[in-house]
Write a structure and sequence with these properties.
With 703 residues, the protein is of the alpha+beta class. The chain has 23 helices and 20 strands. Strands 5, 6, 7, 8, 9, 10 and 11 form a seven-stranded antiparallel β-sheet that branches. It has a four-stranded antiparallel β-sheet with strand order 15-3-19-18, sandwiched between helices. Strands 12-4-14-13 form a four-stranded antiparallel β-sheet. It is extended.
Length: 703
């Protein structure tokens, strides 16, 4: 009795807990989301030039782009395409908010007349042309635009809103084009600039130099300390901009069919075989029950190798199989054969092209082809001759094999006529001329127009729910036992699991190395609640479960040596190597060969090297603008060095300087510089606008 009273006392609490659980289940997203009562209220996707972008506004724009896309393509957008649409909308918002003040200051605008002209006038926007081009003809249909606008009011509110958004995008693009054209028109090149460009490209110096590359000094002999790295980073801070990244290690638990899954499927397909044998409508039966839809009539050429062998033993009316191909079991109900109007054949060829259509060139190619044919008749391997002598590199790699083809004009007519008029298989005893050259042909499978009626059922082995649960339990147990990075590594080693590493993931990353749908892993790694060395819960991606641990992070507001340790270590190490090399070379005098000999292994001397500012290259030393600049700046007979270059230490001695000859007209160089400057204007505008807009991008927290 006491027990029953206890249950009664606790039942009220239990009912309350269940009720609350149901509420959270039904409206949990609203209660716990970014706008929730219990959760935060930050719905800001980003900020551009002080203007906050609300999630709802951003998503409405993305939805409008998606609806337009789906209306044009007639299909739903994939997740990858929707991701691209988000990026498109984000760039549109940057264009609107970052640029609009500049448009206003400059008095730039798109008039109503311009807007109409862009859509249905004489200067139609490329976006309109693309949207209203008939895919079957490739022709733009302006009348289609007019008809669409005439019927716009009869369309639904979403479609009308989408069109308005589309037109606003056209105006934004036009405004940007105006700004780019305006600033491009303001670009100019002075005569002095053109003259300097000419002399930089036309002047040349001839030098000898001694070069000691940094790689000639073993890294192990140069110790780099953290103090040196920190000092270098501090003095070069502008070169190393911070980025928010995460380094993640992870193990995977593939969800593969078990032996029991295979047995269960085998039993299922045997049961289907019995039903297939007795059904009166086998085409409908296989359409309903097969995982893989195959045509009811198949040519021998299109069959798998296993089916080609098996079909020879089939008897009309019988059910045959199951046959296993990969992870799929097949059964076939054979209904005899019928003939087709089109023949299929398989052949190989050796092609000898002629360089030009002249009689002499064709005669030479024909003689070569006839020589190859004679060698094959004499016992030479057709496949080997194709690999060594055929001009058709694609088929040559396969021993000349062209695969299966039909007499439907797929091949050049003389070639097709020769193959399909050949009885049976074997070498065609003549060379065949086509527009491509001369062919030596071997028919490997005789022509056939027979079609086999095969009602086919293919059932693919997939993991059962029990198998999935078993794999999940293993992954979950691993995660529970791995609370730290050390435990993660120990347990992975104990379970013989391969640990993969994804280095420097960005917050927007959707792929984790080869994992294509790793967005949830990225969001977890960047969550404020995920600490360094924290092990994750179990994630499901594709056909596998994943457990991850964050092993490293970088912060764009707090750049540390570890963020760029490899790059900075190399720079500091090279500086230390340069100091050591210069110390050995600085007091040496005389010919470069003598200095090189005294220095020892690693020193290289290059003689009579021609240099100018255009290339930035030094023979034997590679790309080294600093060394090239010093070489070009030397007067004849002068020497400089030893000094620290990009890739090593140099001593350079100038032998001669040949200045560029004076010319009266520098317009060629002026026009080239002007074109280069104008071409970079759109990029420079975008960089300047984005930098001044102080953009904050929080999209990764929402998607």
């Amino acid at each position: 009795m006491a027990l029953i009273n206890k249950i009664r006392e606790k039942s009220g609490i239990a009912v309350t807990i269940i009720a609350i659980s149901l509420i959270f289940f039904i409206v949990g997203g609203d209660l716990l989301g970014p706008n929730s009562f219990f959760g935060g209220n930050n719905t800001t996707v980003g900020e551009i030039k002080g203007k906050k972008i609300d999630y709802k506004e951003f998503q409405e724009r993305v939805d409008a782009v998606r609806r337009n896309y789906e209306a044009q393509t007639g299909r739903g957008a994939s997740e990858a395409e929707i991701s691209q649409m988000r990026e498109q909308v984000w760039m549109q918002l940057i264009a609107e908010y970052a640029y609009e003040d500049e448009y206003e200051k400059l008095g730039l605008a798109v008039t109503d007349e311009e807007a109409v002209d862009m859509v249905q006038g004489d200067h139609v926007s490329p976006a309109i042309i693309q949207a209203f081009t008939d895919p079957s003809t490739g022709s733009f249909n302006k009348n289609g635009v007019v008809e669409y606008l005439r019927n716009l009011k009869t369309l639904g509110p979403e479609q009308q809103a989408s069109w308005v958004q589309f037109e606003e995008g056209l105006k934004t693009d036009r405004m940007r084009q105006k700004l780019e054209k305006l600033l491009s028109s303001s670009v100019y090149v002075t005569k002095a600039e053109a003259e300097r460009e000419y002399h930089a490209t036309a002047s040349k110096s001839v030098v000898d130099f001694l070069y000691v590359p940094y790689y000639s000094v073993p890294d192990s002999t140069v110790k780099v300390t953290d103090d040196q790295l920190n000092s270098y980073l501090k003095s070069h801070s502008k070169q190393y901009k911070g980025v928010d990244t995460r380094t993640v290690q992870y193990v995977t638990f593939p969800i593969l069919p078990s032996k029991e899954d295979s047995t269960a499927l085998y039993d299922q397909i045997k049961s289907l075989a019995k039903e297939l044998a007795t059904t009166t409508n086998d085409s409908t039966f296989v359409r309903v029950n097969s995982d893989i839809q195959l045509p009811l009539y198949q040519s021998y050429a299109n069959m798998s190798d296993q089916l080609k062998e098996a079909v020879k033993t089939f008897v009309p009316g019988g059910v045959f199989g199951p046959y296993r191909e990969g992870n799929t079991y097949y059964i076939y109900k054979y209904g005899g054969t019928k003939t087709d109007t089109v023949y299929t054949v398989r052949a190989s060829h050796i092609l000898v092209r002629f360089d030009n259509p002249s009689d002499s060139a064709k005669l030479e190619s024909k003689r070569q082809a006839e020589s190859i044919l004679a060698q094959i008749r004499g016992g030479a391997s057709f496949e080997a001759m194709a690999m060594s002598s055929s001009s058709d590199q694609g088929s040559a790699q396969r021993g000349g094999d062209l695969g299966y083809f039909q007499n439907n004009g797929m091949m050049a007519k003389p070639f097709e006529d020769a193959v399909f008029s050949h009885p049976g298989t074997g070498l065609i005893n003549r060379v065949v001329e086509s527009m491509y050259g001369y062919h030596i042909i071997k028919v490997t499978e005789a022509k056939s127009n027979v079609l086999y009626r095969l009602a086919s059922i293919g059932k693919t082995i997939v993991p059962s729910q029990a198998t999935r649960d078993d794999v999940y339990n293993k992954a979950s147990e691993f995660a529970l036992q791995s609370k730290t990075a050390e435990q993660f590594a120990e347990n992975a080693k104990k379970e013989n699991l391969y640990v993969s590493t994804a280095n420097r993931l960005l917050e927007s990353a959707t792929n984790i190395n080869a994992i294509q749908d790793g967005r949830e892993i990225t969001r977890w790694a960047f969550s404020d609640k995920t600490d360094l060395n924290k092990v994750s819960q179990v994630f499901e991606t594709e056909e596998q479960y994943v457990v991850a641990v964050v092993t490293g992070k970088t912060d764009k507001k707090n750049v540390k040596v570890n963020d760029f340790r490899t790059e900075i270590t190399e720079k500091v190490r090279n500086q230390l190597k340069a100091a050591g090399i210069i110390a050995k070379l600085k007091d040496e005098k005389g010919e470069l060969e003598a200095i090189s000999s005294k220095y020892g292994a690693g020193a290289v001397v290059e003689k009579d090297v021609e240099v100018n500012l255009l290339t930035g290259m030094l023979k034997g030393a590679g790309f080294d603008p600093l060394a090239v600049g010093k070489a070009v700046g030397l007067k004849a007979g002068k020497q400089i060095g030893p000094f620290e270059g990009e890739n090593g230490v140099f001593i350079i001695r100038s032998k001669s300087v040949e200045p560029a000859p004076e010319i009266a007209d520098y317009s060629q160089y002026k026009n080239q510089l002007l074109m280069n400057k104008s071409g970079s204007v759109p990029y420079l505008i975008n960089e300047a606008m984005q930098e001044s807009a102080n953009i904050v991008d929080n999209r990764a927290k929402f998607y």
